[in-house]
Amino acid sequence: MSPEILKAAFADNLNFAVGRPAEIATPEDWYQAIAFSVRDRIMHRWVRQFEKRNAPDVRQVAYLSAEFLPGPHLGNSLLNLGITDNARKALAGQDLDLYIGLEEEPGLGNGGLGRLAACYLDSLATLCYPATGYGIRYEFGIFDQSIKDGWQVEVTDKWLLPGNIWEIKRPNFAQVVKIGGHTETYTDEHGAFRVRWIPDRVVVGVPYDTPIVGYLSDSCVLLRLWSAEAAQSFDFADFNRGDYYGAVEEKVFSENISKVLYPNDEQLEGKRLRLEQQYFFVACSIKDMIRLCLRRGSTLERFHEMFCVQLNDTHPAIAVAELMRQLVDKYAMPWERAWDITRRTFSYTNHTLMPEALEKWPLPLFGSVLPRHLEIIYEINRRFLDEVRTRFPGDEGKIARLSIIDESGEKYVRMANLAMVGSHTVNGVAALHSELVKTQLFPDFHDLDPKRFQNVTNGVTPRRFLGLSNPGLTRLIDGRIGDSWLSNLDRLRELEAFAGDVGFQQDWMRVKLENKTRLARIIRDRTGVVVDPSSLFDIQVKRIHEYKRQHLNVLHIITLYQRIKHDPRLQITPRTFLFGGKAAPGYFMAKLIIKLINSVAETVNQDPAVRDLIKVVFLPDYNVKHAQNIYPAADLSEQISTAGKEASGTGNMKLSLNGALTIGTLDGANVEIREEVGAENFFLFGLTCEQAARLRAGGYNPGDYCHGDPELRGVIELIDSGLFSHGDRDLFRPITAHLLERDDYLLMADYRPYVNCQQEVDHAYRDRHHWTRMSILNVARMGKFSSDRAVREYADNIWKLKPFAPEA
Ligand code: GPK
């Protein structure tokens, strides 16, 4: 698409879609005009492919996810369409990057799980797989984080306020969803015994479609997000005849369902509204698939041939019972047939072993929201447990553990068990995690059917996280190996040949320095802290969680601080420690960790004795947009979770892809990253998952580590002295007391190995050629971690899905 054509398109859209004369157009107006023009091109592809995508023999994947974190669309869509340079030319002198930067991001997710879903859409589109991402169009996404006096303050996210050019409302595909009420039995006209569900509420789900364009592939996938609206005609006709205000109330009540994203990451909230959200989007999505299936002339007997449905964690697991309900209650299919279809339709991805994240719903709550589903679940469970009994007669313990209903105390519906029973395949998200899924999480299911368990190691899209975020490095790589690596990441391997090339190393260092200089400017503008771009940028960005151990990082910072104070002439590699991440609003310890980081930053940054050797920065409001500025500037990537706790991690991949070296434990995908880049190019420390288990089993006493290590004791005492809290000796006591008394995440045990490993990092960074060589090798060996590879594995091994056009 030539610059002239784009220029005309921008002018047209400024005129006709935005309605502003060029003379007075603001940057926001220009953003909109460009975005409309890009959307036009995406729509063109979308419409052109309609036939191919909907051919009767085309099988589709539906990716059901309560979260999607796509990031701003404009920059990425320009890149994927291959028109960024021409768009720049078309704008002759105007600042395209300024316009791109104006876009609000759809923060419809919490962290890794939502971002993974977005990476997979990018790859599905790029590889021409027929796919739809189904989710919720939250009116308010993840809160914006600001920092006041060192504490996190949550501010409502208003992403829809400026309007959202990328979505198209499709009221004609709206679906009605029932909630609450009771069930009745009746005999149908053939004398058959049937059940119907009489709800006490109905809401309407209206889909909003955002087509996601693939990288230079001419292909799109659809992100279809459901928004809740009131069923107006229903109100007036059946309930509130003439009751206008009652109907308005009902409207507000209905719209609540898609109002706000629950901001908890790997933590249960257990709220009725959350269950309603889950059911709402699942019911709309299943009905939408049934509609499509029938429209394409198929019968529901072939539902599983038309659709495979991936459950992104257990949030959409109710889909198993909903498809059964549709097939049995509505379409009068015999139970066995319906169950066979259901089992062939679903597969389930587990994303965590953290016990507090495993979803379970109190039975009374579940029954009051979804009375018919509870009955169906009982029936699924009865048949399933009968089968188990014939295989393991008399093993009541096993039966209790496998049951979808937890009856050990107060009764619960276990969503993971429902997902397991209703799926043909379950997968973990990294090799180690997938092993733990078999041995720790679902050992009884594994005994029952080991073939059902698979691994698909996570991946990330190189388009957004290198091509778009790091144009400097992209150009440098293109210059050496051409540009095909962006859709074939294994080709980065060809960079290995240049790892020792001094000229290439210098270019590599120059790009990194430019990226760090840019980030330093952002840090100064957003926090007032001045950092030195030539210092080592040591970065930990991710949700704040005790298991991710941001506070272990802090213990290291205080260790260095203490060393400098004891020895004012100490020579260490100057470092900038950068943190970013949100804490769940109700997670006290996580919020206190943020306060600790900011308090240590305040003390350290203004202490002249530190001689600017260390700077500590907490960059507020970590999100996709900010991440894109951070990854390219990283020298060191902190992946320091307690072994066995991080299912995979994906930030670890993005940072390494941008040339950061990793300091990390043998956890999640770190294990595979280390395998790929080579042990000599990875800073490993800490307990393994087996060692951690043994330590705990033997009666772990964290206090022993502290008392046996004077430096560690000094660090804890320094925190408790009030030095970082204006004399308040109690402020951080919940953290230090937990570390000394319980230390669930084994910081005390891993402290010394971590600090020693950091010393190795310090030394390694002084040899810049060697460091740069390691950095180049890290990038060269990241091919495996492309989401293209991951999506192909899902398609080949789980979905049995083919691209609808042969790959170019
Ligand atoms: C896992 F269970 C969950 C969750 O509720 N939210 C979430 O972001 C993350 N995750 C894991 O913590 C990461 O290790 C993993 O890489 C990511 O999901 C994607 O699989």
Brief digest:
With 808 residues, this protein is an alpha/beta fold. The chain is built from 34 helices and 23 strands.
Describe the structure.
- The chain has two domains: 341 residues, Glycogen Phosphorylase B (Rossmann fold); 253 residues, Rossmann fold (3-Layer(aba) Sandwich), CATH 3.40.50.
- The protein is an alpha/beta fold.
- Helix 23 packs parallel to helix 24.
- The strands form five sheets. Strands 1, 2, 5, 6, 9, 10, 11, 12, 16 and 17 form a ten-stranded mixed beta sheet that branches. A six-stranded parallel beta sheet has the order 20-19-18-21-22-23, sandwiched between helices. A three-stranded antiparallel beta sheet has the order 13-15-14.
- 50% of the residues are buried.
- Strand 7 and strand 8 form a beta hairpin.
- The protein has 34 helices and 23 strands.
- The structure holds ligand GPK.
- The site of ligand GPK has 19 residues, from helix 7.
- Its cofactor is pyridoxal 5'-phosphate.
- Its EC number is 2.4.1.1.
- It is an enzyme of class 2 (transferase).
